[in-house]
Each structure stands twice: as structure tokens, then as C-alpha cells.
Amino acid sequence: MRTPRPIPVAAPVALCGLAASLLLGGCTALARQSGDGGAQPAQVAAENARQATVTTEWGPLGPADRALIVKVREAGLWEIPVGREAARRAARPATQRNLAEIARQHERLDELARGIAAQLNVPLPDRPTAEQQSWMSEIGGKSGTEYDKTAVARLRVAHGQIYPQIAAVRASTRNTLVRQFAKQCETFVHTHMTLLEGTGFVTVDALPDPPAVTGAPEPGSPNQRRTPAPAATSVIRD
Description:
The protein is built from 8 helices and no strands. By secondary structure, the protein is mostly helical. It has a single domain, classed as Ferritin, core subunit, four-helix bundle (Ferritin, Up-down Bundle). Helix 1 packs across helix 6 (144-172). It is globular, with a radius of gyration of 21 Å. Residues 1-31 form the signal peptide.
């Protein structure tokens, strides 16, 4: 059965904007008064707290920073059990081996997330999100190669979604602890994507649509071959 195509991921064009839209879910300000049908004062206060930047000894800690730590924790809560199960149930040895390795690496990532959360006083969840739980149920309901395809597809899409989010935080955070954490996450996620692609189940149907971009060059004519561009050092003027 073909896995439903995921919602396309936004292009990582403007990093700060990406952090706001992807990490924080594109939240809109809740500044309206309750009298005109807007948010209640308690909701406004709660949202203001979620958007707050606090001072730490390692630098400012913003909402995008906290969201990344939580997302890494949530990823481990569903990818560890899926990887462990795949080590037993997957039809192909490559799927068994690679997903088991992803689970092992997520144990280390979870250790890192718990450590930085304790230092920065960030509360962490103890259960996967409702969406992640639905993925686990979907994967668990398959058998044979359909099990492999579904597990790999769901994991690959999830890694493709968090990859630009990590890059956005890595590029914009003012907190030195979070910057180091994002750098470590970047290495892990890159490895996980490679492991998933190594199963042979990452096909066109398992990937989101390419992001929309502006300012892309027009495609070259198939009937006209271009000579290689000159070296940058030969065209730069001193």
C-alpha cells in the first residue's frame, strides 16, 4: 500500500523566518481582547510565556531554542521503539540493521536532550505526540516489505522535517549550549537520513514535494551543452 504523501516542507530560505514558522508552528499573536471574540487573558498570558526569551548564563534562551530541545525528545520517544521493533520484524536485513542503529543513536540524543533541558530548565514530555503515536500504530499494523516501506517512509519524512529546523536554530541561536546541541543534532540527523536511504526504500513516493523557491535559474537547453564555468579565482577582481 502506498504511504500517503506528506505535507511539503517549507524551504529553508530565511533562517529566522523558518525557525518561527516551523519550530513554533506559525503561531499568531494572541493580543486581542476577549470582548471581540479573541483569546482570554489566561490564553494571552500562556502564549506570551511560550514566546518569551529568558536570560541564562549561556546566553538568551528563546522559544525556538526550547522547541528544538522538546522536538528532539519527542523524536526519541517514538523512533527508539520503532527502531527496536524493526530490528525484530523488518523483512530485509538492511532495514533491521539500519533502524536498530537509529534507535541506538536516539538513546544518545535523548541523553543529550535531557542534559541540556536540565541545565536550561526546559520541561520535557514523556510521551510521543498524538501524530507520532498514529505513525507507530500505522507501522505496527503492517507486515512483510510493507512494514519496511512504511517504517522507512515515516522516519525519513520526520527527519526531513526536523533537518531545516535544526539548521535554523544552529544559525540563529544566541545561546552557546543550544548552538552546540544543534550542531550535535545536525550530525545525528544527517547520519539517520543516510541510514534510511541505505535501506533501499527511500523512493519518490517516500519524499515530500520539493520546496518552492524564488530566483532559481532557468533550466539549460537540452540541445546546448555548456562549457564548465571558469574558476572563481579567475573572475574575481582584486
